[in-house]
Structure formats: structure tokens, C-alpha cells
């Protein structure tokens, strides 16, 4: 296929990239699925398309209809871009802690933005709950209706990964994949890829890479949802078992501090030219940990979730890093992404 029929046809079929330093260091083949090459520059384009297609198939979304979602940004960008060719509008509820770049991109993609204070899920004013109520209200007033994408508990999200990301990884490795590891926002990627790979080979090891501040490492190792610490990564760090996570195959779990993940993001840019966001650092750190568990000679796949320019004002800003007591690489100190 040399000519793609519009934006929707450019989502997915991303390359699998051998991560040189991580592979050499561990004696394993560590491969990153280049989801930052999707048209919206993140893995969430797949979920956005899956959710929209599912709603259209069910007849809940008609032309002119509104898609409402609570999102850390990437899902909203995916929804807004995919909505355009179908003639839908998007209303995005976003916590005010998310990067300015993501908010700017959302507006550029035509989304109406509703910024809310970042409060825990237990609070009725949490962005996810606000988006659900807003969708209900708009469904009553919008002439062509409104739906709540509900990425956390709408399993059309993980189905997109069962149908596309997982099978792509299987085909690209010709079935020679020993382990898969990634972090969780909604759990769609983790559970969907895990399920797709396990269905093809039950001995594949599926491992969670959890940032500090999330509760899933504790859940999968002790059965208790408990969290400690915090992370500057965005889009990941879950405190509950979402519908997308239910029945996810989990063989192992790792807890990855920012001090381990963030330097990997810098290394990947400096030495391999891969410009990625913080969650990709957590994932690559998880892949290195899984490689150490399995020993040399194994093939391990992880997700390179989104493009790094989305975080220039934070992750690639020396002043911000210093404020979080994170080390600043010498090259970034010499040429900061934003003026000091
Ligand atoms: N990384 C980034 C940057 C994200 O935005 C997200 C989605 N929130 C994820 C990882 C996690 O993906 P998922 O929702 O499929 O768990």
C-alpha cells in the first residue's frame, strides 16, 4: 500500500526499533515499538480510532456528534485528529498539570478544552468524572448527540491493541518474542498487547513497568492497591483496576523511579536520536529489568509511547528538572530546549 486513504489509514503499522545500548548492555534484543510515529505522535491514536469506530458501529455516534473525553492529552489529540475526517467535534477535559505543548496541540486539532484542577479519582471533580457528567449533559442538548469516549473503562480501547499492536509485534518478530513490558495509563496497551501475545504463545512473559505514585506494582505483587512517591512522567500511573485492566495477564511487575527512567530518555535522544516522552523511559527501564530477569539471548518488546517535543517545557527543561531533584545531562545544560 503506497497511498493511504486519509489520516485514519496512517495509524498503526509502526516500526519495531532495536534499542542499541539497552540491547548491548543486557545481551538481549530489546525492541521499541515506535508509537511516536503515529500521526498524532502517540500510541493513543490507536485507542482513539478504536473507540470512534466502535461507537459508529453501535450507532451511538452520528455525523456532527460530539466526542467528550477526560484525557492527559494524547488520547484527546488522537480523538480530535480522527474526529475531523468523520465530521465529529471533540470536547476534552484535561488536568491543568499537563504540559502546555499538549494543550496547544489539542486546541490546534480543533478540540474545545476544559481545564480542571488535578485532583484524585476519588474526588467528584476529577477530570475523568467531570468528562462523564459533561458528556451526559451534552447528549441531552447537542442536536447530533454526544458520547463519552471513557477510555479507562471502555474496552474498545484495549480491543484496538488486541487487534493491531499485539499482532503487529507478533508478525514483526516472526513470533520470536520472549517478553513484553510497558506502563499503564488506562491499561489498554498493556492488557491488549499482553492478551494478544499470550493467545499466540502462553509462555511469553508479560511485565508491568509502574512509575512511582501508581498503585499497580503494589497490586500485582501484594494484592493491595497502594502507592508511594511521585513521578514527572505524564499519561501513566494508575491507582485502580480499570475495565481495560481486568483479566490482563501479568507475570511480573517492576517499580521504576524517575531517577532510573528519565536518564534513559536523555540517553536515547543523545545516542540513538530517539526523541521520546517520559513514559517511554519507564518502559525502556522495564525492558532492561525484564532482560536481567530472563537473562541474555531473549527478545523483549516495549512501547515508545510518544514524541518528546510534547514535553520541551518540562522533561527537557533544566530548571524544571532541577526543581524535581533530577539530574540534568551536560548536553541539555549547554542547549536547553527552553531558555533558562
Ligand atoms: N504514555 C503516554 C505518554 C500516554 O499518554 C499514555 C496514555 N495515557 C500511556 C503511555 C499509556 O497508555 P494506555 O492508556 O494504553 O495504558
Automatic annotation (TrEMBL):
<keyword id="KW-0028">Amino-acid biosynthesis</keyword>
<keyword id="KW-0809">Transit peptide</keyword>
<dbReference type="InterPro" id="IPR050214">
    <property type="entry name" value="Cys_Synth/Cystath_Beta-Synth"/>
</dbReference>
<keyword id="KW-0808">Transferase</keyword>
<dbReference type="InterPro" id="IPR001216">
    <property type="entry name" value="P-phosphate_BS"/>
</dbReference>
<dbReference type="InterPro" id="IPR001926">
    <property type="entry name" value="TrpB-like_PALP"/>
</dbReference>
<dbReference type="Pfam" id="PF00291">
    <property type="entry name" value="PALP"/>
</dbReference>
<protein>
    <submittedName>
        <fullName>Cysteine synthase A</fullName>
    </submittedName>
</protein>
<dbReference type="InterPro" id="IPR036052">
    <property type="entry name" value="TrpB-like_PALP_sf"/>
</dbReference>
<dbReference type="GO" id="GO:0006535">
    <property type="term" value="P:cysteine biosynthetic process from serine"/>
</dbReference>
<keyword id="KW-0663">Pyridoxal phosphate</keyword>
<feature type="domain" description="Tryptophan synthase beta chain-like PALP">
    <location>
        <begin position="9"/>
        <end position="306"/>
    </location>
</feature>
<comment type="pathway">
    <text>Amino-acid biosynthesis.</text>
</comment>
<dbReference type="GO" id="GO:0016765">
    <property type="term" value="F:transferase activity, transferring alkyl or aryl (other than methyl) groups"/>
</dbReference>
